[in-house]
Amino acid sequence: MTAESSAAEGSASSSTSDAETPPIEVSDLSVAFGDVPVVSGVDLRVERGTLVGLVGPNGAGKTTVLRAIKGTLSPDAGEVRLDGDPAESLSARAAGRRVASVPQETGLAFDFRVRQIVEMGRTPHLGRFDGHGPEDERAVREAMDAAGVARFADRAITEVSGGERQRVLLARALAQETPSLLLDEPTASLDVNHAVRTLELVRDLVDDGRAALAAIHDLDVAARYCDEIVVLANGGVRAAGPPEEVLTAAALRDAFDAEAFVGRDPATGTPTVTAFDAADGSESAEPTESAGPPDPRRVHVVGTGRPAGRVVARLAAAGHAVSVGVVPEGDAAAGVAADADAAVVTAPPFAAVPSERRAEAVALARAADVTVAVGEAGKAGQEEIGVETDGETEANAAVLAASDRIACVGDRFDDGEPLDAVREIDGNDEPNR
Amino acid sequence: MSAWGRAAGWSAALAAALVAVIVTSAAIGPVRIPPVEVVMAVLNALVVPVGVETTSQGVGLLTLPNIDLAYRSPFAFPVDEVHQQIVVGVRLPRIFMGALVGFALAAAGTVMQGFFRNPMADPSIIGVSSGAAVGAVAFIVFPVALSATLTLPVVGAVDIGLSHGAGVSLFAFVGALAAAFGVYAIATRHGRTPVATLLLAGVAIQTFLGAVISYLQLQAGESLRRIVAWLMGHLSGAAWSDVAVTAVVVPPLFVVLLAYARDLNVMLLGEEEAQGLGIAVERTKRVLLAASALITAAGVAFAGVIGFVGLIVPHMLRLVVGPDHRVLLPSAALAGGSFLVAADTLARAGSTELPVGIVTAAVGAPFFIYLLVTREVHEL
User: How distant is the Cα of A125 from the closest Cα of chain B, in angstroms?
Assistant: First the structure.
C-alpha cells in the first residue's frame, strides 16, 4: 500500500467517524484492583445527542468505568475508544480535547478565583506559554454563563458553597469544549433547584449534539433526564436501554438486591422507583441470582385508595403476581396496579358494579393463593351480603367469599405488613374459611 | 490582565527591588561606600565583547582553532581603586551568590509546595538538603580519601586539581542528587509516583541521612567547626568562579520550572483532574522533581543548608500575588534573591559574622509566625 493511499484511507475513516463512530465506546472493559475484579466485560456506547445514565448499587464500579474512559486508570482488558480512536493511543492533551469530566468532589486547595478554575478548562487547547486568546475568553465566558457561575466569578473557590463549587467544576468542563462529557454524581451535593438546573443544562448540551455519560445514584432523576440507562451491578452490565424498559422491578431486584416498585411520576410521567427494605430477612441474606422472592404467589387485593395502592406496590415489589378489584375507575389503587402490570378490574364510580366485572374479579380471587383485604374492604366479608348500598362493597364481599384464604390489612400499616400477611396465611395449613 | 502579563509586571518590580537590595548591600560593610560609587564601580567592571580573534594552536595531530574574544570596558568612572576592589572583588561575588541561592531555593520551595499541595513543603522535602549535607560533611571529614578517588588517572595522568571548597560543593551537589533520586526510586512503582509516598520516603531518607551526619560529626575531630559552619549555611568566601558555575546552572532550570507553571496550577486540583485536563501527570511530576532537585542542589552545594528561604518566601508572595504559579514562581524567586541578600547583609554587618542560615531562621521564623497569626496561611 502506498503512503498516499493509506493517507487517503486514513482521512476516509476519519470522515466516516464523524457520521457513525460514537464519541464514547467501551468494549469488553475489565478493571481489577490487584486481585479484586471491579468490573468485567463492560460494553457501553454513548452516541452523539444522547445522555446515558450509569446506575447501580454502591461499589458496582460506576466511577471505575468513568475513570477508565477518562484515562486515569488503564484497563486490564478491553478497550475504550474516543471518537473512534483507542484512548490509549491518545496523549493526555488529545484526550482532554475529546472528553471533559465533572468530578464528584475535588481537593481545591489554594485560593484560586472561580474564574481561574474555569480558565483551567482551556488547558488542553493551549501551548506551554500561550496566553488566553479571544477564542479562550469566549469559551470561558460562555461556560460561566451557562453554568451560572459568572455572578461569583471573582470569589475565591475556597469561599463558595459546595453546590456553587459543583457548578464551577461543570463550568470548567464546559470550557473544555469537548464533544463528550462525563459526570460523576453531578447532582450529589446540589439542592433540588440547582440539581434540576444542572441536569436541564446537561440535557440542553446533549440536545445540541454532545454525548454525555453520567453516573447517577438517583434512579428517578436518571429516568427523567437520560435517553438510555445502563445498570451496572456485580461488576457487569445487567441491563441497558431506554429508562422505561430498563427500570423494572425485576431488573432492580437483580441489580440492587432490593425490592422496588416502579411507578410513574405524576408530574413528569417518567418512571419513578420506590425501594423497600427486603422484608424477607433471613431468607434473602444471601444474594440470590434469581429474579423474584423465594415464594412468589398470586395475590388478589381488595380495597381502594392510597392504602390499597401501597399494598399493591409492596406486593409487586416483592415479586408477587398481583391482581386488584373491584376498584372504581381512576382510583389510586387502579393507577398503581397499572404501573405494576397487575390485572385490575374497575367499575364506574358511584354505580352498581356490572355483573361481568364482578365475575371477572371473583375469578381472579379464586385463582389467587391469597386475597388481601385492605381497610374497610375487610369488613365486607363479615357483613350481610346485599345490606350495603355501595356497589363495590357488595362486589368485594362476593370476591372475598370466593377466596380460599383472606388476610386483612388496616388503613395504616408498615411496609412489611402486607408481606407478613401473605406469608402467615401461607404458613397456616387450614384455609381461613 | 493575562497571567503572563501580570507575571511580567511583578517580575519587573521585584527585579528592580533586587537591584536596589544588591546595591544597598554592596554599600554596607566595614568600609562604607556610597551607593552611587557602588553603581559606578559595577559599571566600570562591565566588559563587552567587541571582536573575535582566532589563533591556531597545535595539540598533537589535532589543530584546534583557539577563539579569543576582544573585550572593552565602556565605562571609566572615577572610583577609588580600593573601593572598586572591595565592591567588585569582595562584596559582589558574595552578594550575587546570595541572590542566586535565594532565587533557586525560593523557586524550588514554590514548586514543592504546589507539587505536594502541602504548605509545609520546602526544597529539602525530597532529601536534597540532607544529601548535600552528607556529601559535604563526608568530604570535610575525609578530604584526602575522597580527593584521592578524584585524582585517579583517567586518560594519562590527569590531575583534576580540585580545590577544597570546590570539592565540598561537588560532593554536596552529588549527594543532593543521589538523595533525591533515592527518594524518587523508593516512592515509584510501576511508573507511578504517588505524592504521599514520596513525602514519606523523603522523611525517611532525611531521618536516615541525619543519623549519618551526626555520626560523621562524632568522627570529625578538628574539622567539626567547619562542618557546623557548613550545616548552618554561609555565603562567605564566594568567588566569581563559584558564582559563574551557579549562574550557568540555575537560570535554565528555572525556565524549565516556569514552563510547567500552568501544569502546576492544574495539578493543584488533584492528579486525576489534571490528567482529565490534558496534563501528562507522571511525566510532569518527573520533570518538576528533577528540575527542583537540581536547582536546589545547585543552591545548597555552595552555600550549605540555608533554611526557611524556600519555605516562607513562597508563602509571603502567595499572599501578595495569589496562587497562580505563572505569576508566583518568578515573583517568589526574585523575592527569594532579595531576601537572602538582605539576610546575608545582616549576617556580615555585625562585629562578628554570623552564618546566614542563623539570620534567615531568626528573622524568618518570627515573621512566619506573624503571618500564621494574622493572615490565614494555615488554610493554604
Answer: 9
| Chain B stretch 82-121, residues whose beta carbon is closer than 8 A to a beta carbon of chain A | 114, 117
Q: Is residue A273 part of a domain?
A: no
Residues A53, A56, A58, A59, CA torsion sign: negative
Q: Which of A247, A278, A300 is the last residue of a domain?
A: A247
Helix (H, G, I), strand (E, B) or coil at A347: strand
CA distance A41 to chain B (A): 24
Contact criterion met (CB < 8 Å) for A112 and B324? yes
In this structure, the dihedral spanned by the alpha carbons of residues A347, A348, A352 and A354, taken in order and rounded to 10 degrees, is -50
C-beta separation of B213 from B76 below 8 A: no
Helix (H, G, I), strand (E, B) or coil at A272: strand
Asked if B277's CB is within 8 angstroms of A124's CB, the reply is yes
Chain B residue numbers with beta carbons less than 8 Å from the beta carbon of A106 are: 269-270, 273
The angle formed by the CA atoms of residues B69, B74 and B78, to the nearest 5 degrees, is: 135
* Nearest residue, CB atoms, B279 vs list A110, A123, A131: A123
- Residue A419's domain comprises 292-427
Mean pLDDT by 10 residues, chain A (433 residues): 40 46 89 85 90 88 89 86 88 90 73 89 86 88 90 88 86 92 85 85 90 89 90 86 82 76 77 71 42 68 83 82 83 81 81 81 84 74 48 75 79 76 58 42
To the nearest 5 percent, what fractions of chain A are helix, strand and coil?
40, 25, 35
- Chain A, chain B: beta-carbon pairs less than 8 Å apart: 90
As for the ipTM of the complex, it is: 0.76
Tally of domains in chain A: 2
Output B68 or A99, whichever has higher pLDDT.
Answer: A99
Q: Are B344 and B353 spatial neighbours (Cβ–Cβ below 8 Å)?
A: no
Domains and CATH numbers, chain B: 3-32+80-379 (1.10.3470.10), 33-79 (no CATH)
User: A97: which chain B residues are within 8 Å (Cβ-Cβ)?
Assistant: 278
CATH code of residue A242: 3.40.50.300
Residue A275 in domain: no
| Chain A residues whose beta carbon lies within 8 Å of the beta carbon of residue B275 | 70-72, 92
Do residues B302 and B69 touch, judged by C-beta distance below 8 A?
Answer: no
Q: Kindly list the residues from chain A whose CB atom is less than 8 angstroms away from the CB atom of residue B281.
A: 92
Percent of chain B with pLDDT over 70: 87
CB A83 within 8 A of CB A129: no
Question: What sections of A176-218 are H helices per DSSP?
Answer: 192-207
What CATH code is carried by the domain that includes residue A373?
3.40.50
Cell numbers found for residue A209: 449534539
Lookup result for grid cell 504548605: B119
Query: Does A220 lie in the same domain as A363?
Result: no
- The last residue of one of the domains, among A247, A280, A309, is A247
Q: Contacts of residue B190 in chain A, CB cutoff 8 Å?
A: none
Range of lowest pLDDT (A288-297, B17-26, B210-219):
A288-297
pLDDT reported for residue A179: 92
Whether residues A96 and B273 touch (CB distance < 8 A) is answered with no
Assess whether A229 and A330 both reside in one domain. Answer: no
Rounded Cα distance, B122 and A197, in Å: 44
Flag if A106 and B2 touch (Cβ within 8 Å): no
pLDDT score at B68: 67
Separation between Cα atoms, residue A121 and residue B136, nearest integer Å: 46
The answer to the question of residue A168 being in a domain is yes
Question: Which residue of A91, A97, A107 is in closest CB contact with B270?
Answer: A107
The three cell numbers of residue B60 are: 598533537
The DSSP result for B38-84, as a single string, is: HHHHHHHH--EEEEEEEEEEEETTEEEEEEEEEEE--------HHHH
Cβ–Cβ contact A73 with B under 8 A: no
